[in-house]
Amino acid sequence: MERPPQTPSRRRFLRTTGIALGGGGTMLGATAGAADAAASGTMSQARQAGFSALAETMAGLRTAGDPGAAGRRLKEWYLAADAAGRAEIDTALDAVLGLPGDFSALGARDRLALLAEQLTGPQESRITTAIGIAVAGLSDARTGLGNVAMSGRLYARTIRALPAQSAGRQETDSPSGAGVAPCPIPKG
Questions:
Q1: What is the pLDDT of residues 9-60, one digit of tens each?
Q2: Contact yes or no for 110/151 (Cβ under 8 A)
Q3: Closest CA to 92 of 67, 124, 138, 52
Q4: Closest by alpha carbon to 34, among 11, 9, 51, 8?
Q5: Stretch 161-167: mean pLDDT, rounded?
Q6: S-S: 123 plus which of 59, 95, 147, 167, CB 3.0-4.6 Å?
Q7: What is the distance between the alpha carbons of residues 135 and 32, in angstroms, rounded to a whole number?
């Protein structure tokens, strides 16, 4: 039985490209499925879980905000965004999902330490954008994403400073007094 000629389609192009570059259809199926989900305005569950973990972490750092509300706002923004906006959100969240280990399974302190380590690497700008999106989602303003870049940079600086602050506290707050420099007593 002869097949009818195939018409070109985006999915077929992605499948062919994925097989050629990725060496198999399994990897491509995930890519095509994610592309179809983004085109329809829905975010993948993995990205939602990564964002939830990031929003929880940022809420703890800010000591304000509701991570559940942040997740709902992100879904609204994602649905309202054009293809370029969705791609930008996806890229930022994929950088968080690409961090070593399972970001969602880590505790808040470990997430912050991991973020601090990665905020000086090649994914710095993407992770900073994801942080900005989480902070925007946690804010009470309903105006949209606002200035994600500025929020992201501010919180990224704070996160990078956290390991140094905790190391400094351990030296000065030691119960035995070891590692604490004596205070000079003025002569007088």
A1: 444 444 433 333 333 333 333 344 445 555 557 889 999 999 999 999 999 9
A2: no
A3: 124
A4: 11
A5: 64
A6: 95
A7: 30
